[in-house]
Each structure stands twice: as C-alpha cells, then as structure tokens.
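Complex record, two chains
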Amino acid sequence: MGKWTRRSFIAAGVVGGTALVIGVGIRPGNRNRKLEQYVTSDGEHLVNAWVKIDAQNQVTAIVPHSEMGQGAQTALTQMLADELDVDWDAVSFIEAPAEDVYANGPVGKGFVLGDTKIPNALVGTVDGLFQTVANSMHLQITGGSASVRATGVYGMRVAGAAAKEMLLEAAAKQWNVPVASLTAKSGMISDGTRREPYATFVAAAGELQPPYTPKLKTADEFTIMGKSKPRLDIPSKVDGTAMFGIDAKIDGMVYATIAAAPVFGATLKSVDDSKAREVKGVLDVVKLDDAVAVVANSYWTAQKAVAELDIEWQNVGQDTVDSKSIFEQFQNDITAAVANGDVKADIDAGDSDAAFASASRIVERQYKVPYLAHACMEPMNALALVDQGNCEVWTGSQNPLGFKHQIAEAIGFEADNVKVNNFFMGGGFGRRSRPDAAIQAAKISMQVGKPVKLIWSREEDTQHDFYRPAVLSKFRAALDDAGNPVAWENHYVDKHEPAEAPLIPYAINNQAIGSVDSPTHIPFGAWRSVDHSQHGFFTESFMDELAIEAGADPYQFRMDRLKAHPRHQKVLSVAAEKANWSGPLGKGQGRGIALQESFGSLVAEVVEVTVTKGEVSVDKVTVVVDAGFAVSPDGVKAQMESGVLYGLTAALHGEVSIENGRVVQGNFDTYPMVRMDTAPQIDTHIINSMESWGGAGEPGTPGIAPALTNAIYAATGTRIRDLPVSQYDLDVDFVESDSV
Amino acid sequence: MEITVNGKVHTIEAESDTPLLWVVREQLGLTGTKFGCGIAQCGACTMHVNGKPMRTCVLPVGAVAGADITTIEGIGNQGELHPVQQAWVDAQVPQCGYCQSGQIMSAVALLASNDDPSDEDINRAMSGNVCRCGMYGRIRTAIKSAAKNEVAIYDPKAKGAQSSNVEEVTNG
C-alpha cells in the first residue's frame, strides 16, 4: 500500500474510459479498475468510491458498513443523498465489497484517537493519515457506534458534497456560465433556463480535480438528514427474502456442524468417530486442532452424528477454573495491586489520600458482573469453498475485510486469494467481528474438497463466544460532615475499550480511578457498549448509593454535581421531567435513574418497577438521548429501544458461569431472554443539541442496568451489587444498607 | 415422502425424524424460516401447520405428511405483502430481522383467531418468540395496527384447500 497524502482523502480517477471515480481511499491518478468491477454494471458511472449515478439518474450509495439491524446503511445513505441534493426516491445503496480500497479510514481514526473531539474546522476535510492506519489494520469494521459519527460525518457527507460540486463545475464548463449561477436540486442542475439531470455531467465531472474542502450543508439546509426515512433493508425482512449468512447456498454444498473443545485452550487428543460415521447421510468427520466437525448431507444429520462422537480433549490446566475462583482471583489481584502500587491509573486527580485521611465518613462498596454471551439470534455459521488455491466465504460479518485477511492467514493463503461475500447478520453486537466460524468452515472445506456450510448449534454458540468480560469493581468514597463525596476511588480488573468508560462526569475534586490486570482463560470481546456495559452499572450504582448516604434525591444529587456539564444536565433533567420523577408511586413501586455518556452520545434513563412477592416487573423505561443530531430520529429511537432491551436482558437474567473451565449455559432455557410478556414500555425522547454527532447503536445499553437496580432499591430497599438481578430473593422486608 | 408447503406438493427425501425446518430450508430452498435454538425455545422456526403456529425445529417431518404447511414465503399474495407484513413495515419493526419471519407467523396465527387481541392475548401468543434486538414494543404496535385496520384475515386452510389433492404419505 502506497503512502497516502492529505490531498488523497478525496481524489479522482477515470475508469473505463468514461466513468468517474472520486472518493475516500482512491489515490490521485489511480485508475482503479479493480474497484469499478465490484460496484458498477453496464451503463453506470462510478461517481466516487461511495456513490455512483446511472444513465437514468438513479443514485447508488456504496456503504462501507454492514447491516445487523442498526439501520446504519439507511442513515449513511441519507447523509450522502442530502449533501448530493438528490431525491430520496432516486437513491438506493449497496454494501461495499470486502476490498482494501474500502478499508474504513474514519473508523480507523476512532481507534487512533479514541473519542477525542475533532475540531469543527477539520470536519469535512480530514487527512489521509487515518486512511493509512485503517488500511494497514485491514479494517472495514462495523462497530463502536461509529457508522454515522465517523464514516457518515467524515465520509458520506463529504463524498456527497464533493460529488455535487464536481457535477456543478462540469455543468458550468459545458454551458459556459459561472458556477455561482447554477443550482443543484433533486438530482438536476439548472441555470434558470436550462435543466439537466446529474447523469448528463457525470463523465465530464470525472476529468475534474475534486474539491478538498467541499461546502457541507448547515442544519437548516438539510432535506433528508433529520427525517425518519423508512429503513431500506426492512421490506426484505418481512417476507423471508432477506439473505443472512445461514441462507447462502452454492451448488454441491454439504453441511457441517462442530463440537469444539469445551474448555477454552484445550486441544483434540483423540476421537472415536465410528458411531458418528454410521449415521445415515454422514459424509466425513474432520479433525481440527481444537474441534471435531461432522460433514453430512443435512445440518440435522450432522447434528445427530456430532452427538455420537466420543472425543477426548487435552486440557492444559484450566479445567479447575470456575466462576468462584475467577472472582477470588480478581479480589486477590486488586488487593495485591493496591498494596504494591501496581494499579494502572485512568485518572489521579487532586489528593485522594488526604481526602480519605480527613474524611468524616468512608463508604466502601464492591460490585461485580458476570461473563455474558452475545446470543445473536442467528447462530454462528459460514459457507466456505477452498478450491485450487482460492478460498471463497459467504457469511455475515461486522468486519468482512478483516475476515478476508484473518482467514487467509489461518489457512496460509495470500489475501488476494480469499474472497468474502457479506450477508445480513442475524444479530452482531460485537460477536460477528470474529472470524472463528468462517476459519473453521474454510479448514473443513479444505479437508473435504467441497463447499461446506458450517452451522453451530445454539449450545455451541453460547459456549464458544468471545464473552463480555466479568469484572469486579471496588469503590471507596470519602464524605465530608454534610455527607458530600469529596473523594472517589475505584479499582477494577481488566481495562479494555473505550478508555473513558470508568470515568465520571460528576464534580468530585479528588479522584483515583485505575485498573488491575487479572487475565483469565476465558476468551473475551466487544459486547454491545463494550466496557461501558460494566462501568455504567458500577459508577451509576455507586453514585446512587452516595446519594442515599447523603440523604439526597438521587436525581438532584447528580444534577448538583454536573454544573460544569450543561449538556449532561439537560439530558438528565428532561429524563426526570418526562418520567415524572417526583410523581406518586404505589406500593412496591420505585424509580431509578442513571446517566451515561458513551460513543459520543449522552443517554439518561429512568426505570419504573413494581416488585410484587419478589417478582420484578419493569413497567416503563424513559430514555432521553442527545446524539448531537439524529440523522434518522426513528432510527435513533429504535436503537435506544434495542439497546435498552439488550441491557435489560443482561441485567435481569444474563449470566455465563464457568465450571471446570467451561461454560455452563447452553440454550435459551439456561440463558434466558426478556420476552414479549416481560418487556417494558419504552418512551424515547431525542435532544438535537447540534454538538458533535454521536453514535446510537450502543449508548442505550449502559444505563439500563443501574437505572433498574436503583429502581429496585427505591422499591424494596435491596441494593443489587452483583448482576444478574434474578439471583436475588427480593421477597424480603426492608434491608438496611451495609455502609462501612 | 411428500409434503405440502404453501399450497404446493413437494417430494422430499429425509429420515422421518428430520425436523420440518431443515427439510424446508435445505430441500425446498425456502430459507425465510430460521434456525435459532433447535429446542423450541425461540420461535425463529415458526411455520403454520394446518393454520397453527408450530416450532418446526422440533417437528419431525414424518408427523406433517398430509398437513397444510405455510411458511413466511406463503402468506403474501403474489408479490403483495400480507397485511401483517405491511404493518411490520409501517411500524419499522425489524432490526436484524432474523427472528421476524417467526414473529410474523405467530402474529398472523394470533390474528386469524382473534381480531382484537388484548395485551394479554398478545403476550400469550408472542412470548414464545425471542427478538434479540428487543423490538417487542413495535411488534405489539404492529399487531394492534393490523387488527385495527380490519385486515383481511388470512386463512391458511382455505389456501391449502385450493392447492391440490394431498395424499397421505408414509414416513421416509
């Protein structure tokens, strides 16, 4: 990969003799025929890497993110179409192919900078540096709630605006009039007398140098952004025609399912497959390093036969680990790190030691959360064909380009010889950023010489995930005479992403927050909202406990400590107002509140519960979100609803426990879900603060667990410090809180 | 053996204990119905068997010979959406969409027997269908809207009856 320059962020080239390429990831003068073959068909002109316009003036956005239900493909298409000034009806989209030219620079930038705010002056320009980073990391990731806030803001809008300016300039030249005399609207260019579709000027525009800083619209000029356009992928999802990875089919395909080593890290020692091979329809039994797969004429046959395998695994000393020993390890590691000064500081503000030494009172609490599986509705699967030095894979991936490179590496191929065809994902939530099932499918296909559709059982899916990590988090607060917290200390195990997840927005002068490494053998990965899913619960629970200790209203207690953050105050106060925070409550009812900033967005949630004979009914959730600007308000609302439910299922029921080094839970009977009969009413309110645009897919999740447990406390006096809630017996009388 | 799916008789080859789901997906190529759990816990595999919503991941194909089977592909009418499908679009229900075939089949069956379902009725009929994207509120809205709009209630038996003479077939 060559060196990218600042000017290469938006660049142009001519392909196919007549068509134009502009866009992110195309070097100036790079006549990228390779790109064109993936995205154009006869009579179409590629207008840039993210947009093409055909002879009928139909616009196709080329979206470099995959769809797992988050609606990003529609929102990104809206952003491009609005800046390009075309009618929504004339716009459709395709997903970008898994090719290096679509490596996702803006997301790469997120990896480099974390959530550092980009100065407004740079929005709409952005240099190619991050493109280099992304290319080198083979990123084409959908995650981090980054589609709109990164790709959309820095990519799709800029690409649309640049394409429009180039079309206008081409028209001005052709008509020999000043650009300023032309207007572009609804896919047409007019000089007041003449009116021609964009398509007329596409070829000529291709000869022009793209603008480095195209003028973006101001909010009052938006015509498509800010409107709830129906999602483009929904029609296919109501009539059975939407194609998910599990639906992919090619000629000669056979089916496989797998039994992987139950204890993570164990390898295959031996297998007696004689009974499995006797099952009618079984074609082969394939040994992998840490798994055995049965290949058959049907998934069902393969599944029946897998149960007949007699496998011996070579464990490597992890088979004595269980959830209890893991949390004991966490506890011991934190204690040792604190004693030895080995805590890695996230923040060390003020003088916490002095504040604790002179405290009127010290409140000490610890919280813990278990491992969680993603439990995507569509179990992991992939179709792979390895043939004559080439590998082709059909699957649903949050990172198709990463899959291409990781599969190539795993089977010893050059990446150029691996092709990944991406499909809709039946849930992603972070899980489908991992290529493990696709690699297995490729390896099985290599051995049997046929296209193999590998489908995991639900049990296999639950027991071989990359889990949301279990965490223990220990807090202390120093209180003054009036009960105000003057120091906040938090030590927790295993820091991942995003770095700011354990931080708090509240005005407490002395803060000592830091992590302690305490690795386990359990594979972990990103789970919707990543570290915010744990730390949102910890910090907003402890904050609630401090409010109770101070004898204060938990809402007002937070508001009083957010005076430096008017945006936070606004979100929180609107939530309190919409939820009727101070309104009357019946017997067994309670309200809880929580606030969390994540992925560039602020979300406050108020939960209303009724606890009857120990049963928690979650009656209502009020959500207020400030994502800067909601490109698709209904899309943001849908993501809040979804994020809340995902987090609620985890808070109420979610627990992956470990026994003898392996996961105990298997199917939905042991890993239960919130269903229709227990789902709360969710009221979502959107604030368009017009601050920098944030994400939507994840920010709804972190606040629900603490808002729920704070509500349960308000209703029952029982403080829940360990999730899930289901392990508590709430059919008890009032319990005194155990302050130290 | 033969099975009747969406009004058409198909000759299939399968062990009689093979769940209907896999026969329909793999042999008939109708992939709109999904696999989620394999133990009738999630509802993604819901089809209608003689008009009743059934979890086909545990329903042996040998048990449905001669029955009228309807899948998500069979409830619309020649390219037109079934009113419940349209209500799903109007309420923007699906996110990932994977569970929605099963959700819609459960909802169609509910509305076929109850044209004004209460919240409790909806809870009873729909709680066997898991939506990991959590779109329960929108599903409820869509069901009520389809009911309120006095949709032409789909009658799978009538449709099955039009198809052909279905022969009783034996297992295997």
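Note: Chain B touches chain A through 57 residues (CB under 8 Å).
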